[in-house]
Amino acid sequence: MKTLAIIPARGGSKGLPRKNVLKLRGKPLVAYPIAAAMASGACDRVFVTTDDAEIADAAREAGADVPFLRPADLAADVTTMEATLQQALEAYEAHTGETFEIVVFLTPTDVFREPEWIAKAVELMKADPALESAFAGRPDFKNYWEPLPDGGWQRVRSYMQVYGQRQERLRNGRVIYREDTGLTCATRASIIRSGRRIGNKVELIPCSHLADLDIHTALDLHLAEATMAWLEQHPNEEVY
User: Fold this and answer.
1) Considering the entire predicted model, what is its pTM?
2) Which residues touch 90 (CB under 8 Å, ≥6 apart)?
3) Where are the alpha helices (DSSP H) in the chain?
4) What burial letters (b/e) apply to 99-132, b meaning 16+ CB within 10 Å?
5) Looking at the predicted structure, is the pLDDT value of residue 240 above 70?
6) Within a domain: residue 238?
7) Is residue 162 part of a domain?
């Protein structure tokens, strides 16, 4: 099954202008998902879809394929990720003449990913033809409440009324997982062509709390820089 990694990186970011080419530990953000996709060994092609010439140059320098720029009308603030992925897949297939069965979606703003997650997601997709998507998810041990129509509140899960250690909840399978598709998401190309990001029959790959560091502001970038510096100084610390 041919696998295409698609990395969307538009030029018009608002919260952190030009964020996809800003440097983190000396490398532009767009280089991080490219490096992870290549290191995973699971992607036949690594394609960056962008409307911006500077981002395109940085992506090519990092090793990605950027044969054309994305149309401006598909790089607006209101453009959905689903529409972006659909157009990217169809345009890339038309340009190359290739057909892909699996699409791996990665974002430049998520930098704390392991190449092994990508390899695992693609492996799961290839092993089970019925599987529609495999993606990263962060385990969450907090208690959540939702509003009731009468104005009251109720727990999202009944087990949340029992307070205890997170290890106990993990052992008992009483954990909610937050979907983190930007970190790693492998999906059938047919799902992407239909305008969706993930299917209904899925497998989840647990990731670490570092998934919370999604870079959209100057503070996020500062925290990511400091975290990477700390990780370099403490290579043996267990964080995942």
Assistant:
1) 0.93
2) 193
3) 31-40, 53-62, 81-96, 115-127, 166-171, 189-193, 218-233
4) ebebbbbbbbbbbbbbbbbbbbbbebbeeeeebb
5) no
6) no
7) no
- Closest to 143 measured CA to CA, from 126, 124, 159: 159
Cα(219)–Cα(233) distance, integer angstroms: 21
Residue range of the domain that includes 43: 3-137+176-233
Q: State mean pLDDT over 207-227.
A: 92
**Each residue of 166-207: pLDDT tens digit?**
888 888 888 899 999 999 999 999 999 999 999 999 999 999
The answer to the question of residue 26 being in a domain is: yes
Question: Per the structure, how many domains does the chain have?
Answer: 1
Q: Please return the burial class of 145, using the count of CB atoms within 10 Å of its CB with bins 0-12, 13-18 and 19+.
A: exposed
Residue 29 maps to which CATH number? 3.90.550.10
- 239 band by pLDDT with thresholds 50, 70 and 90: low
Backbone angles phi, psi at 60, to 5 degrees: -65, -40
